[in-house]
Specification:
The chain is mainly α and 181 residues long. The protein has one domain (3-176): Orthogonal Bundle (Arp2/3 complex 21 kDa subunit ARPC3), CATH 1.10.1760.20. The chain contains eight helices and no strands. The protein has helices at residues 3-29, 42-53, 55-70, 83-87, 91-109, 116-141, 146-153, 158-175. The longest helix has 27 residues, at 3-29. Keywords: Cell membrane, Membrane, Transmembrane, Transmembrane helix, Transport. It is a multi-pass membrane protein. InterPro entries: BioY. This is Biotin transporter.
């Protein structure tokens, strides 16, 4: 790969990462309010970033998203912003988006032509990572038992996340050949 091709590839990767960071921000504005964790479309775009961009670029997309919120843009669920959100009860989910997107991407990259089943498995694992990081911080910051944190931070979202997972699999399977990094 020559220098020009490498530069174009890196630029394309950064543009896609920025785009998926922005899509995640848009997904945060579509909210079904629940306490303490609202339902949004953020995980749909986190999942798509992982499958379509691969591990590093997907994680970068979510770092972009989180940084936008930290600097004060109202891109977190419900139009919230600031560093306090990252350290609050729901901040673990934001950190989980970064780690989950990376893991989804790495699992997807492990296959030259990932099948529908492989992509589904990658998304399930990535979402489990998001839940794990989110529930851990929710439990610690809100002083909830792990069971209580699971009951308020995972159980109400399972059905919606299942729908988003199916949508992400179908969308990603359709678009995966158009995102050439």
């Amino acid at each position: 790969m020559n220098q020009t091709t490498r530069s174009h590839s890196q630029l394309r990767r950064m543009v896609y990462a920025a785009m998926f960071g922005a899509l995640t921000a848009i997904g945060s504005l579509i909210v079904i309010p629940m306490q303490p964790v609202p339902i949004t479309l953020q995980t749909l775009f986190t999942s798509l970033a992982g499958v379509l961009l691969g591990g590093s670029a997907a994680a970068l997309s979510q770092v972009v998203y989180v940084l936008l919120g930290i600097i004060g843009l109202p891109v977190f669920a419900g139009g919230k912003a600031g560093l306090g959100i990252l350290f609050g009860p729901t901040g673990g989910y934001l950190i989980g988006f970064i780690v989950g997107a990376y893991i989804i991407g790495k699992i997807t990259e492990a296959r030259q032509e990932p099948s529908l089943v492989w992509i589904t498995m990658a998304l399930v694992v990535g979402n489990l990572v998001i839940y794990t990081v989110g529930v851990t911080q929710l439990s610690l910051v809100a002083h909830l038992s792990v069971i209580k944190a699971l009951l308020v931070g995972v159980v109400p979202f399972l059905f919606g996340d299942l729908i988003k997972l199916v949508a992400a699999v179908l969308i990603a399977f359709k678009l995966r050949n158009t995102f050439k990094l």
